[in-house]
Write a structure and sequence with these properties.
Blueprint: E1 3-5, E2 16-22, E3 25-33, E4 39-43, H1 49-59, E5 65-68, H2 73-76, E6 81-93, E7 105-108, H3 112-125, H4 131-138, E8 147-154, E9 157-167, E10 170-178, H5 187-201, E11 206-210, H6 213-221, E12 225-235
Parallel strand pairs: 4-5, 10-11
Antiparallel strand pairs: 1-2, 2-3, 3-4, 5-12, 6-11, 6-12, 7-8, 8-9, 9-10
Helix pairs in contact: 3-4
Length: about 240
């Protein structure tokens, strides 16, 4: 019998961290909200086929996306899953800061008002995202050690954003983006360097990220190497 557990780490209305325990082994699932009603779900590596099938039954009502290191699950569960894409995870260990210019000034987010500003900028960079939705999704991170949000300024005008989430010995870099008017001017590379330097200067030097084709050009130049692969599937609703 699968034991279904919540409140393992930090349950909020918007973000869930759900764990399943069977035979004294914990199988973790991060769940983040999608732009439409539902959740994006990432499962731990230890999830086996039998456990996965039971978890799919538990989560079908969410109409989720599933990220897992297991390949071709849609062929094993055609009634449950459709394949979306393969995602490569990159990592980097860097003990000394990158050299940076003075093109951009970094500001760390410390208040909910600042986060609303961050969310508005993010919605302009990622057009499919709603600012209010982003704010509601991330407001629980304010003041917590596991997350830091950055706004980057050119003079007194915002130029871009990033986010760092910490866990398992890594700093994971997300939501890296530059506003349209600042693209193709080297600001993207500068933004990433400053985000990484913030972590390095706080004695955190192992990094992990996934990258778009555009972002990968920057990350490879900075020394990121492929670390792992996982596969994304859509979970079919009932």
């Amino acid at each position: 019998m699968l034991k279904y557990m919540e409140n393992i780490y930090e349950i909020k209305q918007i973000r869930k961290n759900v764990c399943y325990i069977k035979n004294d082994v914990m199988y973790g699932k991060w769940a983040f909200p999608t732009a439409k009603p539902g959740w994006t779900v990432t499962y731990a590596d230890k999830v086996n086929k039998k456990i996965l099938k039971e978890i799919l039954i538990e989560t079908q009502n969410y109409k989720t996306n599933l990220s897992t290191p297991q390949r071709n699950l849609h062929e094993k569960y055609p009634d449950n899953l459709d394949f979306i894409k393969e995602v490569i995870v990159y990592d980097l260990e860097k003990k000394t800061p990158f050299e940076t210019s003075e093109k951009l000034t970094l500001k760390t987010i410390s208040t909910k008002e600042d986060l609303m500003h961050w969310s508005i900028i993010a919605s302009k960079i990622y057009n499919e995202c709603d600012a209010d939705f982003l704010y509601e999704s991330f407001k629980m991170d304010i003041g917590k050690k596991h997350a830091t949000y950055f706004i980057f300024y050119k003079g007194n005008k915002p130029a871009g954003i990033s986010q760092v989430i910490r866990g398992a010995g890594y700093s994971a870099v997300y939501w890296v983006g530059v506003l349209d008017e600042y693209r193709k001017q080297g600001y993207g590379t500068e933004l990433v360097k400053q985000s990484l330097n913030y972590e390095i200067n706080h004695k955190r030097n192992k990094f992990m990220l996934t990258a778009s084709e555009l972002g990968l050009i920057i990350y490879k130049k900075l020394g990121f190497k492929p670390m792992d692969v996982y596969y994304q599937y859509s979970i079919k609703g009932k």
